[in-house]
Structures are given as C-alpha cells and as structure tokens.
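User: I'm new to structure prediction. If I give you an amino acid sequence, what do you actually give back? Let's try with this one:
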Amino acid sequence: MTKINKTLMLGILLLAVVVPMTTYLAVTNQNPEREAAGDTSGTVYVAEVVDGVCGSVNGTKVSFLPGVRDACAKGAVNWMDTEATDGDYNWDCFGTTGKGVAHCSATKE
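Assistant: Good question. You get back a string of structure tokens that encode the predicted 3D arrangement of the chain. For your 109 residues, that looks like this:
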C-alpha cells in the first residue's frame, strides 16, 4: 500500500469518527438554562449522513486519472490504483459514516 493510500485511509477513518461525534455533540450540547427559560433560539447543525456513490466516470473509458469530483458523486474518494496497473483506475467512495462504500472503476484507454 502506498504512502498516499495510507494517508487517505487515515483521513477517511478520521472522517468516519469525527463527523458522527460532531453530530452527537451538536445535538446534545444544548444549554438547559436557556431552554428552561423558554429560549430555544440555539442553532443545531446536524451533518448529512450519506452513502458513498460512484461519480460520472465510473464504468467509462478515460485517457487519464479521473478528478475527485468525477470519481465520487457522494462521499470521500480513496484511490486503490492510481496508475491503472491492471488496465483500470480503481477507487472507493466512502460515505460519511464509513458505511455505504461504493467500489468504482474506469478503464484506461
């Protein structure tokens, strides 16, 4: 596994932990004193939970490594084969919870 792939995997793992924890804290970290006084104007931000979805280049023929926006329609890209050593560029799109992983590829022309 290349250094880039290891770094990407670590980043995705951190996303899988940080996003759910941030959502939990945003929902639970409310001020009970304000609520008791009838002030419920506090804003709660909840992260959208999405499954990974392959992008527009999945299953197509390409002449070069697809860009991140074309690789995954939803989720974070993790490149498995950026050199197309087997004739295909291979990558995964990870959802925000670490579940819902889409396996994608594009054939190198």
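You can read the tokens as a compact description of the fold. Here is one thing that stands out. The helical segments are 3-28, 32-36, 68-71.
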